[in-house]
Structure formats: structure tokens, C-alpha cells
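Data card: per-record layout.
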Amino acid sequence: MTTTAATDAEDSGAHPLFAQALRELGLDEVVPLIRRFPEATRTAAEAAAALGCELSQICKSLIFAADGVPVLVLMDGASRVDLELVRKELGADKVTRAKVDVVRETTGYAIGGVPPFGHRTKTRVLADRSLLAHETVWAAAGTPYTVFPMTPRDLVAHAGATLVDVRESVS
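The structure for this 171-residue chain is written out next.
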């Protein structure tokens, strides 16, 4: 990547760590697609409203602790993660939401801006199959104000995720 492309990634509003990940993955074509909003898109509902897309087209990047070890779960914005299904999938005794400091320490990002890849540390990644229902999904680009589009299959591949069914059942 040229210096200009590196500058473009940072100018896009993407977090520098995420911009670096895009460069390292050879995803320069994603940079001009990053959208920055004046208002926070911290939640899936905020992101969907800002983009004018379906809530399920938002990819949430959620960090959990499985027996104390961080794990990333990618879930569509309209659904909730079933912790019991995650526990079974991982063969863990206990799965809980990770604390704020663990999320930042593990990923390098604040909650509400965690992208699906480009994290500070390598973690196990699970992606719910519900993401595959769309041609394109939108995910955080490292800040609560930026998002980027990608095909679900490419997103799952770049995240190094295992496809699973961990969506909470709708009763």
C-alpha cells in the first residue's frame, strides 16, 4: 500500500489499528467504502438508522469470556446471542459478557466500535449463520462513528470465524 492509501484509510475515519489491518489484509478497496457519521452508531439500531438498512444487515462484534478466555461472536443486529449455545459450541463451563476493560485490552477498541477483525490480540471467532442471509452487511470500522460494508462470506473469512448457530430463539 502506498503512503497515500495509508493516509486515505486514516482520513476515512477508520481507527488507525483497523486501517492497518485493512492494509495488511490487502483490503484497500474497502477504504473508500467506510462511512463516517456525525452521530454515534454505537448500537446496531443506531447504525441501521444512519445507513437506512435493515437491522439484521448490521454485524455486531461482541466479546464474551468463555472460562475467562475472550471470544468474539459476530451476530446480526436484529438477534441476540444465546450464551448457552456459545458455551456448548466452545465446550466451556461458563460464558459471560466480557467486561469493558477486557474488550479494550483484547481488541484495542471501545465497545460500540469493535470491528470483526483487526484486533490487538488473536481470539477465537464465532460467526452466526444469520449473517449469511444478506448480500452485504455493515460492521464497525474501529470507532463508534464509522462502519464499512462487506459480503458476509468475506467478513467471516477475514475474521477467521467458524460459522455456527448461536442465535437466541425467538419465542
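Known properties of this structure: The two ends are 49 Å apart (CA to CA). Helices lie at 3-11, 16-24, 44-51, 83-90, 100-107, 152-159.

See the next section for split statistics.
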